[in-house]
Write a structure and sequence with these properties.
Blueprint (H helix, E strand, L loop, with lengths): L9 H10 L6 H13 L7 H7 L12 H23 L15 H24 L9 H25 L4 H27 L12
Helix pairs in contact: 2-4, 2-5, 5-6, 5-7, 6-7
Length: 203
C-alpha cells in the first residue's frame, strides 16, 4: 500500500527544519528516522522521534490544525522515505559534494558524520531506552557504530592539526564504507525478517 505522505525533497525539507528552528540538520534527522525504523522498541512512535529533535523548551508551537497536519505530514513523508530505504536495504550516508582537498570542508564532513551516526542512527535505534532486548551481535554492531563515530572525531582532530587532507580523505571513505556495511548487515539479519511489524503510524 502506497503511503499518502510524500517526501518534499532535501532542499525544501531543510528549509522546513530551518523554519521551525530544528537544531538537527537534515542528515541527522534522516539517520535518526532510519535508526528508529530499525528500533526493536515496540512503544516507539514517530511523534516521539520528532519531539526528540527539539529541546524540551524549544518544541514548535503549532497554532492551527492545518499547520499541525502539514507539520506531521512533512515529517512522515521523510519517515516513509527512510522506511523504504530500510525495507530495500539501501541505507547510505548522505553524499559529500564538497572539495575533498579542502581541510575545513573535510573537518566539517567528519563532524557531520559523527553526528549522523551517534545522534542520528544510534540514538534513533535505542529510541530513548537505556537497554533493549536484542541479540548479542546486534549490540556489538551498535557499539561498533559508536566506535566509528569516534573515528570521525579523531580524523577531524588530525585535520585541525593541518595533516594533509589527501591522506585523510581515503580514510574517511573507508570508514563510510564500514558504516554502510554495518547498516546492511544489521538490517538484513535483524530488521528485514520482521519489517512489516516495524511500520509505525504517527499516532
Amino acid at each position: 500500500m502506497q503511503s499518502e505522505n510524500v517526501y518534499i525533497g532535501d532542499d525544501k525539507f531543510q528549509r522546513f527544519l530551518d523554519h521551525y528552528n530544528c537544531p538537527a540538520p537534515l542528515g541527522v534527522v534522516k539517520l535518526r528516522f532510519a535508526g528508529a525504523v530499525c528500533s526493536p522498541n515496540p512503544n516507539l512512535r514517530p511523534t516521539d522521534v520528532i519531539a526528540s529533535l527539539f529541546a524540551e523548551n524549544m518544541q514548535p508551537r503549532l497554532t492551527t490544525k492545518n499547520e499541525a497536519e502539514l507539520f506531521f505530514k512533512f515529517f512522515m513523508g521523510l519517515w516513509d522515505e527512510m522506511f523504504v530505504e530500510i525495507k530495500t536495504n539501501t541505507l547510505k550516508l548522505p553524499e559529500f559534494s564538497g572539495n575533498k582537498s579542502d581541510t575545513k570542508e573535510l573537518a566539517e564532513l567528519c563532524h557531520s558524520r559523527a553526528d549522523q551516526i551517534e545522534f542520528g542512527f544510534v540514538e534513533g535505534f535505542w529510541g530513548g531506552c537505556e537497554t533493549l532486548s536484542i541479540p548479542n551481535y546486534a549490540a556489538e554492531l551498535m557499539a561498533s557504530l559508536s566506535d566509528m563515530a569516534d573515528v570521525y572525531g579523531v580524523l577531524a582532530k588530525k585535520l585541525a592539526q593541518a595533516e594533509n587532507p589527501k591522506d585523510i580523505y581515503p580514510v574517511i571513505l573507508n570508514t563510510d564504507q564500514m558504516v554502510e556495511k554495518t547498516f546492511r548487515f544489521l538490517i538484513e539479519h535483524m530488521v528485514l525478517p520482521h519489517i512489516e511489524q516495524l511500520q509505525r503510524s504517527v499516532n
